[in-house]
Structure formats: structure tokens, C-alpha cells
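Re: the 732-residue chain
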Amino acid sequence: MLKKLSRKVKTIITKPFKKPKKPHRPPKSQPSSPSPPPSPPMSPPKPQKPSRNNNPFLFPKAQSSVLPDPARFFSPNLLSSPVPTNSFFQNFTLKNGDQPEYIHPYLLKSADSSLSICYPSQSRNSAFLYQIFVSDLTIFATNNPTSQKNHVISSYSDLSLTLDFPSSNLRFFLVRGSPFLTCSVTGNTPISISTIHAILSFSSNSSQTKYTIKLNNNQTWLIYTSSSISLDHSLSLITSSCGFSGIIRIAVLPDSDPTYESILDQFSSCYPISGDAALTKPYCLEYKWEKKGWGDLLMLAHPLHLNILSSDDSDVKVLENFKYKSIDGELVGIVGDSWVLKPHQVSVTWHSIKGVKEDSYPEIVTALSKDVEALDSSAITTTSSYFYGKLIARAARLALIAEEVCFLDVLPKIRKFLKDTIEPWLDGTFNGNGFLYDSKWGGLVTKQGMTDTGPDFGFGIFNDHHYHIGYFLYAIAVLAKIDPAWGRRYKPQAYSLAADFMNLGRRSNSNYPRLRCFDLYKLHSWAGGLSEFADGRNQESTSEAVNAYYSAALMGLAYGDTHLVATGSTLAALEIQAAQTWWQVKEGDDFYGEEFTRENRVVGVLWANKRDSGLWFAPPEWRECRLGIQLLPILPISEVLFSDIGFTRELVNWTLPALGRDGVGEGWKGFVYALEAIYDKESALEKIRNLNGHDDGNSLTNLLWWVHSRGDEYEDACGPEGKYCWFSHYCH
């Protein structure tokens, strides 16, 4: 029976469900300007019931006028399925496809039937740091008589991309974390390799299967070939004297260190052509690469990989002294065909992890009564999917707090408010906006985003989907919990929303791409969608990303779906550890260099190829916004995100002086005081009681609940896992 249940539950999720520059974000609280005039309501689709063949629900189909055409770069055989919109190679699919992408450890740029490779240096100051692209080497076919210049994406996976230049007989296996760039050449094609630098020396081994290039920028590059090839060179150009068919592998020698050369020699004959990541069980992610050639596979791991790499895997060997530089920290060599990664476990709970002290119930109940009394669905003026989602999630928080403090009298009003506000979006009757389905890329768009990339922060071009939908899922999960009959009635719509960014399937008849936002190599999400950026994808708010996966897990709890609980919990755990690794900047840590670390305690916007102290909607000096955007919404899982009390104290002390600036919003102050409550409850409580307003996704009730559910510091001294999963104490 248990096996049957497991198969049934797994089917629900794994089976397919039937920025020009990114808009400048205003402060993430409800704007005071009037909402746009409501558009005529959409014709309400009849809520679909799952058919006997289990076809999933789809929101009304539409054709966006602002989405680019994926057919320009994707191979035709890939277009029968939804294709990625927020991926590590997205620049290769947009406009001319010629902006670089960071595929560790190299920046790669495709243009005019050639691929340029760069081992980037970094520019650092107190405001930002980024990797500098220069064409260290460019590989291309010497004679390319055809006019076709575009590359073709012939395949992709979680950890890799195959890029073809059909007119040049070149195919590149771009596998993330490979110290080699691997190129397959067919058709006895003459090859050229150019550089913007001067070639100081050029030599080969006796078999002409390995060449060493020393450039005047102090770089040394190695070229390996599967068979003999005769190469000649001039000042900045290398050419083959005749045609070649076979494999070419190119690698930089880090710091021109000769001790690394023997390692690269040893592993040069085994090359990966693709890589997949599998969520095999809760809190476990497994990498597997398809490889060719002979010998063992050498790959590179970033710091978070190393932090959570399973020590139980005896087939994996870490080469601690083999390192490449990266904006994400040192990349360390690992030998092995597969890895197992195990993030710290987190508890996904409806209520506070440590509980609310009973003597604080009266104060919370007083605030709760006022906040619930003020709920009025007819007073909502926003039609933005983002701000609307925040409002309904705020109300859902009140329901769970009411449960926790045993004040159930307010639940009927909250339930009515949630039904009145959520149902129009699920039924298609909301006046002025709504969710639609566009099949061009495969995903949800909004009515407002059908003809303009600006509304809903670019939701119509797949920006921020996990943020917006995450708020809706939170409210849906809570309503399904307190009103199971309602939950059953709207389950198809709820799962269709979740599938937009939670789909794990790869089947050709899927309606959504696999894990739209989550990057299974970097182990966090990307919010940037179908906008071309010189620095790749980006993400601002890690806490809203955590909320998305946490809310999906809560929805799994509401529906008894163990597979959704496990998937949401695992992704939330990974997102949290990624935020702690790359967004949280600790005093004395040299991860981002002394200058940036001295001036910053948190990254504003993290890009694939850049770290920025500014936000989409605020300059770096608005530190309270930087803190707040990495905390909101305040939830039980927020204390896991900020589990390092020492860092939290550093962050608050760094932020507090900014609150003296004229015009600082009360809502942002509330987030600062919430973090202060982690280590100084009394001081924070007094400040919170004196606030005159709150963020539109927050409330006095929620802040009081947060302060009164903070535990004693001694409870936080039991390690990263035992702190939130107490049973681990009994599992040694």
C-alpha cells in the first residue's frame, strides 16, 4: 500500500502539469500612486476537473506579444517541450545570442560562428565586484563559406549545454565545472584559434596532441587533441595546416603553475558531454555526468558543493590543492563520475519552530484582533500579481498565528477574506489582471504582461515567477489547511501554479520547463527571465526565493503530498545555504575581498558574473532596504535563514545608522528590529511597539509573534542540523 501511495504522490509532481534592462523596481511595499484603471474582466474559464486520463489543469491559453522567439537558437526537436527561461545559458537564447555566460570556470561568448573563452580576472571596489571578459582564445573553422552565423542549442541539461555551429562542423560540450572546454570537430575541418593577446611562446609534444601557449597577459593555456594535429602560429593566431576531425580540449593553467599541468595531463582524455542532477530523496542531490574517452573524470566544485559534499561517497576524491579562481570562491578539483550533496535539513512547519510563550498571548491577540478586523477584500486597489500576492499571504499569516495562540474566533473572517481574494485569480474573474498560459516558452504570464514587459516586474517575460507565485502558494496552502473542502475544489489550479516553477519532469508533453528558477549547479534561484544581461542572470531577494519553496512544501503538507513536501523542503534548504554562502557577507571574511567586505554586510543583487551593493529599487546607502529584502516575508523558516546569531548582530549593527536618514519607511524599520529580536528581544520589542506602520506584506501581529517566539541563545548552540531537526540528536 505504501509503495502504491508513493508512486501516486510522485506522479503528481514529476508528471507534467495538465529585462531591455530589468524594470527599475520601486520599493517593495505597496505604492501610494493610484492603480491603473481596471481592464475588462477576462471571460471566466470554468474550473476544470481532472479528467479520467489525469490531464492537468491549465490556465487560459494566450499568445504574448512581448516574448522572443525561442526557435532562433533552440534546435527544432527541443521546441516540442517547454524550454528554460531563467537558466545559466539564457544569454545564448536572446537577441543575437552574443552576450557572455559564466560556465565555471570560464566566461564564454558565442559570436559569428566562433566561441571565445576567457579565464576572467576580477575588478573589485567597495560597491561591486565583477569578472572582466576578454577573448583570451577564440576557436573557429578556418574556412566558413556559409552565411549562417548563429549557434544552435542542440541539447541542454541541469549541468550542461551543447552548442553547435552547423556551418563550421563544430560542437561544444559546455559542462559546468569542467576545467576544460571541449570541442568536437567533424568533416575534416581546418581549425583556427585567435587571441587578443600576443603569443610569447608556442610548443607541442612529440606526438602533436598537446600544445602549450604562453601569452603576454601571463596566462598559459594547454590544448589537447584526440589525434595528431599540426598547428602553426603567428603573433595572435594559431591555425591548423590541414583539416581535423576529433576532440579538442582547451584549459588554462591557473596562475601558470606548472604543478597543475600534470593533473590536467592526467585527466585530459576523459571528457563529459552532459550532466544531470537528481533529487533522489529528501535533502539529497546527486550529480551524474555522461562521459566519453578513457580514465577518470575531473570536475570543479564551488564552496557550497564542498560544504555539503557527502563524506560517505568513497568513489569521489577531492584534490584540495588543485584550484581555479572564481567570483563564487575557489573552485576545487574533484575526481569522480558522480557526486552526492546533502544540505542541512530544515523543518518546514506551519507554526514557529520553538513556540510562543503563553504569557505573550494577550499582546499578540490584541494586535491580531485589530489586524483581522481591518481585512477588507473590497479595499484592495492593486492589480499587481506581486503586491496582491503579498497582501493575501499577509492575511494567511494571521490565520496561522491565530492557531498558534489559540484564538480561533478570527478564523472565519480570515477564511472568507482569503476565499474572496484568491478565487478570482484561480477562476479567471479578477478585474484587471490574471494568470494565463503561453506555450511559446511554456509558462504562466499575466494579462498585464501580455503586451508590455514592465507590469508585474516583468512576470510576462518570466521575471520573479517564484516570488509572485510563492506568495499565492502560501495563501493557498493555509486556506487549504483551514478549509480542506475548498482545497480539494481548487487543487488543480493550485498545482498548476506550483508546477510553473516546481516542475521536475522532463517529458515532451510537459507544460512547464524543469525547475524554472532553481539552478542545480549554483544551488539557488535566478529571478531574471528573458532579458539579455551582460552579467547573466540575477537574483535580489533570497528570502522570497526561500518563501517560494517553503510555501510549496506547506502546500504539500496541506494536500498530504509527501513528494512535494520533500522537494520543497530540499530546495528551501539549498536556497538558505546558498544565501548564507554568497549573499551574507561576514566581518573578516575575505570571500569577496577586503574592500567590498569592509563596506557591506549583505549583497544587494547577485549576478552570475557580478556582485552589486545596490538594489533594483534603492541605492547602496539604503541599508535597511538591503536587510529587509533579504528577510521579507517573516516566517517560521526565517530563523533558519538567519541562524548565525553573530552575523545577524553584525548585519543589524551595520544597518541601524541608516535608520536616521530622512524618509526611512516604517516598514523597513520593522525588518531591522525583527532581526535585532534574535539577540535582544526587549530592545526590539520596545521599538516594534512604537512603529507607526508596516510593510504591506507584514503586520504588527506578525512582528509580535516573531519576537515572542525567539528562543534563548543557548538553544542555538547545537549545530546547523540539530537546531531545527531535533530527532537528529538520536540518529548517531
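The longest strand covers residues 270-281.
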